[in-house]
Amino acid sequence: MAFLETPRFGKVEYGEEAVVEFAEGLPAFEADTKFVLIEPPETSPVVFLQSLVHVELCFTTVPAVCVDKGFQLKAAEADLEAIGGMSPDLLCLAILTLREDRTPTANLMAPVVIHRRTRQARQVIQYDSGYLFEHPIGGEGAC
């Protein structure tokens, strides 16, 4: 087991099975290629993507189906090849935007896609999907 000291969670113990790798990083965070998934039971279904490169960087996410129970990944096969291809092993996470003065939103247009078996990940932009970068939360989710 490894340990990481974070501003949000303090000292976190994690195993290699909790680490996902973004070969290209995330847009605007290209240097951050390794993240650990933190899933505290008390905040379920929230999944925190904690950077192992810059500990101050942590994204708050939820499975996309928790925002829209009919969510369908509409990614080109080429976008998924680098992480292991289209598979039932894919987890699609929507990054949340949380602001004090606005209702929280979820980015369904560009979900973080994690291949659970290979532990490879990528943020996939689905331009023609009909999904929004700022999808309102509180609709017909499955969680």
Account of the protein in words:
By secondary structure, this protein is mainly beta. It has a single domain (2-136), classed as BH3618-like (Roll). It is 6% helix and 38% strand. It has two helices and ten strands; from the N terminus they run ββββββααββββ. The chain has helices spanning 64-67, 77-81, and strands spanning 2-6, 10-14, 19-22, 34-38, 47-51, 58-63, 90-97, 105-115, 120-123, 135-136. The strands form two sheets. A seven-stranded mixed beta barrel has the order 3-4-5-6-7-8-9. The chain has a two-stranded antiparallel sheet with strand order 1-2. The mean pLDDT is 93.
Keywords:
BH3618-like, 143 residues, 10 strands, 7-stranded mixed β-barrel, mainly beta, single chain
